[in-house]
Amino acid sequence: MGEAGRICGIVLAAGAGTRFGGPKALARTPEGEPWIARAARALRDGGCDEVVVVLGAGADAAADLVPDGTRVAIAADWAGGLSHSLRAGLAAAAEADAAVIVPVDTPDVPAAAVARVIGGAERAPLVRAEYDGRPGHPVLVRADHFAALANAVTGDVGAGPYLARHRALRVDCSDLWSGEDRDRR
C-alpha cells in the first residue's frame, strides 16, 4: 500500500454531549487542560502533518480552546449525529492523502497509538486501533475511501460498520492505554 503521504488529524468534537452534561468540546482534564488540546497534540506528536477540530454544539466557546496552528471546521448540521461531524472532518481533510480520526472524548489517547495506526497504513488503506480485541480509536482512512465513507455513515453511527465491512486492519494498542472513551464526567 505504500506510505500514507500527507496525513490530516481530525478531532471530532461537535456533539452536544447529552450523557456527559454538555458539549465535550468544552471538557477539560482535572488540571484544566482542554480535551481538544490534548487530542490535537496526540495527533501532531503521533505523526499528523496538520490537525482539524470539528466543532458544532458550543462552537463559539470551544473555538477558544483550539490550539494555535490547528484548523477548525464547523459541522453546521451537528445535531443530526456523528455522521455529520465525520463528513465535515473528511471534507476539511480533502487535500490530505489520509486522515487519522479521534473523538474528543478519548483525551488519554497517546501519540504512540496514533503513530502505530499510521504505521499500519503501509499494509492497508483502513486501519483501526484495538484494545483487548475491541475496536477503538484512532482510526486511519486513506483518501480513496473518504467519499465512500462519507456516503456510508448515517445519523449517530460513525465509521465502525464501514471499517468492519471493508476489513480494516486492526492494530493492537492495548499496551499503550485502555482505549476507553468518556461519556460521563
Automatic annotation (TrEMBL):
Pfam families: NTP_transf_3 (PF12804). The keyword Transferase applies. The keyword Transferase applies. Residues 9-166 form the MobA-like NTP transferase domain. Keywords: Transferase. InterPro entries: MobA-like_NTP_Trfase (IPR025877), Nucleotide-diphossugar_trans (IPR029044). Coiled coil: none annotated. It comes from the Bacteria. Gene3D superfamilies: Spore Coat Polysaccharide Biosynthesis Protein SpsA, Chain A. One of its GO terms (molecular function) is nucleotidyltransferase activity. This is NTP transferase domain-containing protein. It comes from Microbacterium hatanonis. The lineage of its organism: Bacteria, Bacillati, Actinomycetota, Actinomycetes, Micrococcales.
